[in-house]
Amino acid sequence: MTDNNEIDLRRFFRVIRRHKVLFSSVFVVIAGLSVLYALSRAPEYTTEATVLIEDESSDMPQRAGGAMGMMMRTFSIGGFGSAKVDNELLLVDSHDVLIRTVKRLKLNVSASERTGLRSLTLWDDSPVRLVVPSVLGDTLLPKNAFRVSVRLHDGKADIKVFRGRIFKTVYAEEKNVTLPATIDTRFGQLSVVTTDKYSATADAMVKFSVKSYEMVADQLSRQLTIDSSDKVSDGISLELSSSCPARDRAILDALLDEYNSKRVERKHKLARTEVDFLNERINQIFAEISESEKKIEQFKTESHFVSIENEAPILLETSLSAHEELLNARAQLIYCEQVLKSLEDNPGALLPAYSTPGGGDSDGNPMVTTYNEQLMLLAELRRSAKPGNHALHVAEERIVDMRNAVITSITQTLESARRIINERTGIVGQMDAQLGRLPKYEREYVKLSRDNLIQNELYVLLVEKRESALLRLNSESSLGFVIDPAHTDVKVSSAKSLMAACAGVFLALVCCIGLALLLMRRGNTIDDPMDTRRSGLERNTIVMRSGNTGDANRVRAALTAMDKSDVIAVARLTEGCDGAVDELIKSLRRAQLNVDIIDDLPSNDLMLSAGYSSRVKACVNSGNRVMTVVPDGGAICEVAPVLARENAVTVLVMASGALSRDDFDKIADGLDRERLVVVIASGSNDAR
After folding, report:
1. Is 89 helix (H, G, I), strand (E, B) or coil?
2. Distance between CA atoms of residues 627 and 646, nearest Å
3. Rounded CA separation 644/667 (Å)
4. For 334-372, how does the pLDDT look when each residue is reduced to its tens digit (9 = 90+)?
5. How far is CA 398 from the centre of its chain?
6. What's the pLDDT at 210?
7. DSSP character string of 604-625
8. Residue 73: which residues within 8 A CB-CB, separation 6 or more?
9. Which among 627, 653, 669 is positioned nearest to 573, based on CA atoms?
10. How far apart, in whole angstroms, are the C-alpha atoms of residue 129 and residue 352?
């Protein structure tokens, strides 16, 4: 890593190169195991089924017309039934439906047979079948799941009941038994029976796995893929992949069947509840209708009221007729009183004429008319006849008789008119009172009729709903219409095998990279110039191999290439680097560079003294360079002020792989990197 947290790939590949055998072995082992696992997997087939969710209600088409409904369906996710499809999706994927499917197919007992490296799941092609107690699927704990192996040979069978794969716990074992056979275990009696695929000459190993219903339902939930078929459709697709297509088809068909059964049960339950409520309500409404009809009957009986439409015209006509008769009777009464008054006040006067209302003058009383005629005749006789005339005498007697007859008739008519007036006055009052009460009767009758009408309409509505509920109660139709029953794709699905192989290769690469990083972390020492990159000294780092004068000359060239300096400070950071210091001195002398060596200082503190400065100046004044060997190279930072004052060139010498990078960073901290040379002493002549 650098100061910017960058990985130096050169160091990474150096580790790979140095340990290529280890990394190759790790990669080959892990990748080979994954490829072997992928090749040993049984071929998988994908089984699919599709169910359409049909909407039984017709409210939506009534609320939205054809064009509007089509547009709403087109631009909505899932159409009108999106929410319903989501609800049905939850129901299909519910735990209860899965449990029903598992119990129906008895999936808690699964059979498999190993062929070579592959383990194939058996369904209806198994030669034997394991029968377990039915209660075991509900009561078996996950930790108590067990296996049963049946070894078929020579018409016999070896049966073993155990738990575990590597460290097995055997519960029961029987050998050389004849099938069908029963074996007693702690879980109850287990029976192994033959199927139509069994052959007495068969030589096979069939293993049964016995689990609880809950465990199998949980596994099936993880294996099933249930989702909407399309965003604009109301379908649900189911998908299941395994090495046994027959088992998958049976599971999907049973799952859809159990879903429809659960949906039908739900519909029947709701319909039964609705029917019970409607029956109770209908009986209650029928009683209320009967009570309402009794109230109408009682009202009509007490008020003598039948129908206002039929009764009002009759009452009105009767009232008008009675008014007319009463008017005529009063007119007759007045006339008769006038006649009597005329006869009493002036017996010889003419009587007034009488006509009925609406009639002519000829409608008068004939006796009054005859009486008036006789009076006029008597008046003529009196003008023409002499007193004592016999005709006059007869006429006067006739007038007297007629007057008595008129008085008698008028008196009878007067009594009749008074009687008629009394009668018609009562009838008119009765009719007027009856007509006056008609609005009240009508309001009360309308109220009673309205209540009765509402009750009848409600009764009809409830009866219709009960019939509809009875139809649903006896209907076996469900919302789920199976478009495609379970069918298996003819192509083998190699996705999981390929994924396993790729995952193994990826895991091998990750392990190799992790191992390389671990080795880089553990071997975090300075071996090459690249190891000093983090300190910014890679260009100033030189590897000096033992016995190689060229490397020493490279160090000398690096020193002389720097600005002129009379002082060279050499710090030995690790042991085993004295040879590199000697070769450097020899190289300087071969170049006829006079060098005075100061290597007798016991500690770094003396380099800070005035005596040391005097010795350095004396050497420099004599025209020689001074090479100071720092007594404690690891603490060179203590004399950094002296080196800076003398404008010295510093040489850090260390043995290859003897100093960690972190320790080197601490030592080089505080030194002038522009006047610093790093020497890595290597004992090998081969380039690293």
Report:
1. helix
2. 12
3. 16
4. 877 777 777 777 766 667 765 544 444 444 567 777 877
5. 122
6. 92
7. GGGGGSHHHHHHHHHHHHTT-E
8. 79, 80, 232
9. 653
10. 132
Confidence of residue 98 (pLDDT cuts 50, 70, 90): very high
Phi/psi of residue 569, nearest 5 degrees: -100, 120
Which tokens in the block code for residue 65?
């017309």
Please give the distance of CA 232 from its chain centroid, rounded to a whole number.
17
Cβ–Cβ under 8 Å, residues 340 and 411? yes
Q: Check: CB of residue 79 under 8 Å from CB of residue 280.
A: no
Q: For residue 63, what pLDDT is reported?
A: 41
pLDDT tens digits, 480-520: 788 888 888 877 777 777 787 888 888 888 888 888 888 87
Radius of gyration from C-alpha coordinates of the chain: 65
| Closest by Cα among 244, 227, 245 to 236 | 227
Give the model confidence (pLDDT) of 375-419 as tens digits.
777 777 777 767 767 777 777 777 777 777 877 877 877 788 778
Fill in the amino acid letter for 685: N
- Measured in degrees and rounded to the nearest 5, phi and psi for residue 603 equal -150, 165
CA distance readout (Å), 532 to 50, 212, 573, 620:
66, 63, 14, 32
The pTM of this model reads 0.58
Beta bridge mates, 181 = 192
DSSP structure class, residue 602: S
Write out the two tokens for 192.
């192994």
Which residue from 314, 319, 306, 316 is spatially nearest to 441, judged by alpha carbons? 306
Query: How many other CB atoms are found less than 10 A from the CB of residue 360?
Result: 8
DSSP string of 165-231, one letter each residue: SSS-EEEEEEEEEPSSEEEEETTEEEEEEE-TT--TT--EEEEEEE--HHHHHHHHHHH-EEEES-T
How many CB atoms sit inside 10 A of residue 28's CB? 11
Mean pLDDT of 319-325: 72
* CA pair distance 597, 49, nearest whole angstrom: 93
pLDDT at 34 over 80: yes
Report DSSP letters for 231-279, one per residue.
TTS-EEEEEEEES-HHHHHHHHHHHHHHHHHHHHHHHHHHHHHHHHHHH
CA distances from 586 to 126, 356, 448, 579, 654 (A): 89, 176, 135, 11, 18
